[in-house]
Fold this protein.
Amino acid sequence: MTFSLDRSATLLKRAEALMPGGVNSPVRAFRAVEGTPPFINKASGAYLYDEDDHRYVDLVGTWGPAILGHAHPEVVSAVCAAAGRGTSFGAPTAAEVDMAEAIREFFPRMEMMRLVSSGTEACMSALRVARGATGRDAFVKFEGCYHGHADSFLVKAGSGAATFGEPNSAGVPADLAQHTLTLPYNDPEALKALFAARGDDIACVILEPVTGNMGVIEPTEAFLDALRTVPKAHGALVIFDEVMTGFRVHRGGAQALYDFPADLTCLGKVVGGGLPVGVYGGKAEYMRHVSPLGAVYQAGTLSGNPLATAAGLATLRLLTEATFDRAAAAADALTEGLRQVIAETGTEAVVVQVGTMLTLFFGGEIPTNFDQVSACDHARFGRFHRLMLEHGVYLPPSGYEAWFLSAEHGPDEINAVIEAARVALPGSAA
Ligand SMILES: *Cc1c(COP(=O)(O)O)cnc(C)c1O
């Protein structure tokens, strides 16, 4: 039987008349890999099921959140129970307090925090706090890092934007973008030089402390050292955007992995257990600037929503050391298996893994910044992606993305991915 996505293709036609690209978030359109996106009908554990009755081992995990696998029964029943009590009150609840306390156990540096409804909101609010607390407008981000789609961040912003060759979004006023100072990732000298020149204008430095939105790249020791000392010496804050790395490179995020004293932290993805949650927080002296305590305004009708909070809290309670270790062991096993197939097939590719995240890059060297990721063979990634899909593996549809493992990825699923790669790696050669 040949692989067909007829029903998905029909749905895509209808969708394209209604939504730009037929999707509600651009990378889902599979344009970068020149494929038809399967329309997903349901998900369970490590598997996705599409409208054409294919089953895939899922390595997207809804772009990170599904660290327990899909539709974990305890998360589902927590959400259902919450729904029965009412879906939104616009008033404080006990569950929000429980949730904030649970988050602070994972991230003790988040002394105070706010729950919001997306990673985008978390990052734009954290930036506002840094600007409000310092009285400065400029901030530093790194090429290839993505911090959501707020205007200030859509400058050299990784994955989605990079995939389409639009490093700077239309619709962002130049007057605003001028305050966004971008530097190459892993370049401590560039950071020092920028602070030497403009340090007193800079409110904060924001980064993905392990990148995911240009594929998985680790920060070098020298880069982290510069981040520890240089901004602080100029009165600027460091914001760890752990929307992707939080609970994923380590249960306590990259700040636990590297013992880094982040001033502010952004969370999303895993923290919502598959429902819309973002969180920003950090040192109380900064968070006290937020309204109603201070003059930095931020609000949300559905912030701390009972369903989202129920899913997030259930997920955090289930995310024990043992559960995290299962997901990380799955990533270890997949990395090792892929490296073996790469060696056996003589493919020019490398795998970079941190915790439960990894990326396979079609290039000869481990990339350390966005330019090096861009130099990888992305056309080959597209061919590889299509072959993997035909062999039952759902990968992120771009070579600028991280792959995500869950505690439900056991030896059967890992072996299935490795066997698919045994066909798709040589098959993807031009
Ligand atoms: C996904 C992501 C965001 C944006 O989160 P959304 O929930 O998609 O708005 C911000 N920062 C990082 C590092 C992310 O991976």
About this structure: DSSP finds 15 helices and 14 strands in the chain.
